């Protein structure tokens, strides 16, 4: 169920994000493989790249989860307000 306040990414944006991530990761791997240094330095840079990549995915998931939680809370608040307005009778006499 989509509301006007909820933004959706287009397929083109999703494709661009995936392609740019793949290019950046491949460029980093290529640079590490062809760097004229000892193998242990390459291994250290490779582990750093792996750690950076996995932590970027984890951060993106945490941001997404926080945004979804905020959306659910705002939907619950709106449902409560809608129920109060639906139950309200402006013509009922105050006793």
From TrEMBL:
The record's InterPro entries line, in alphabetical order, gives: YiaA-like, YiaAB
User: Which GO CC annotations does the UniProt entry carry?
Assistant: plasma membrane
Specify the YiaAB two helix domain's residue ranges.
13-65
Q: Which residues cross the membrane?
A: 12-34, 40-60
Q: Set out the biological process GO terms recorded for this chain's protein.
A: DNA damage response
* Keyword Kinase found: no
Task: Report any Pfam family annotated for this entry.
Answer: YiaAB
Q: Does the keyword Transmembrane helix apply?
A: yes
Q: Which UniProt keywords apply?
A: Membrane, Transmembrane, Transmembrane helix
Protein name as annotated: YiaAB two helix domain-containing protein
């Amino acid at each position: 169920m989509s509301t006007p306040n909820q933004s959706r990414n287009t397929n083109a944006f999703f494709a661009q994000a995936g392609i740019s991530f793949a290019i950046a990761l491949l460029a980093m791997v290529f640079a590490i493989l062809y760097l004229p240094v000892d193998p242990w330095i390459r291994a250290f840079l490779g582990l750093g790249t792996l750690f950076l990549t996995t932590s970027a995915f984890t951060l993106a998931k945490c941001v997404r989860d926080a945004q979804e939680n905020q959306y659910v809370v705002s939907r619950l608040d709106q449902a409560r307000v809608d129920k109060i307005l639906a139950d309200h009778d402006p013509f009922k006499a105050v006793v």
